[in-house]
Write a structure and sequence with these properties.
mainly alpha, Four Helix Bundle (Hemerythrin (Met), subunit A), 8 helices, 0% strand, elongated
Length: 194
């Protein structure tokens, strides 16, 4: 058995955070909503970890991460392109990981969401329509005649996709290397059956 006394506080908090993000991704896929209680639990974990642990980032850095996570996601909500739960979830993650990490997580979330959206549109058979529409927009921008072609409501590009899975993947991309630096992977490798 793995002795949790060998794993530092940061690794345990990151594992718990990733487990909660997996839960939020599953809920978001099923009902397209991220529950507030899940966001509150993540913020409380961040607050307790950063106040009580020597490995925490501190309360000031926690508040900076929470504020940055909120502010970086807020324009997407105001433009009605993403839900309030996504904004709150990234802000909550910022309360655990701090300013720089939440900025990386937000950037990777948008990139992953773009890739997922592209493949979703392609799988639904609307890729050609999407490319034609954006070709007209790019051509218009280059030659000073901007035109926007509204997609039909039947196209895949008009359907909302849950963002919590991309937020979870982005958080894992940022935290797994940190966990490796903290010795988690070497401890895990000792206990794997192969």
């Amino acid at each position: 058995m793995i002795s949790f006394l060998q794993i530092n506080d940061s690794v345990l908090v990151y594992i718990l955070l990733l487990a909660l993000l997996l839960m939020s991704a599953i809920i978001d896929i099923k009902v397209q909503k991220i529950p507030n209680w899940l966001v509150v639990i993540i913020i409380l974990i961040g607050l307790l970890f950063n106040m009580l642990s020597l490995e925490g980032i501190g309360v000031k850095a926690e508040l900076l991460g929470l504020g940055a996570g909120f502010l970086i996601m807020l324009p997407g909500y105001l433009l009605a392109k993403q839900g309030a739960g996504d904004v709150k979830l990234v802000a909550a993650i910022g309360s655990v990981v701090g300013l720089m990490n939440v900025l990386h997580i937000a950037l990777y979330s948008f990139l992953i969401m773009g890739v997922i959206s592209f493949f979703y549109i392609a799988l639904k058979g609307d890729l050609f329509k999407w490319l034609v529409r954006y070709k007209a927009q790019i051509y218009g921008c280059l030659f000073g005649q901007f035109s926007y072609q509204q997609p039909s409501y039947l196209e895949a590009s008009t359907r909302p996709l849950p963002m919590a899975p991309s937020i979870m993947l982005a958080t894992a991309m940022v935290l797994l290397p940190l966990m490796g630096d903290l010795g988690f992977l070497s401890i895990l490798m000792r206990y794997l059956p192969f």
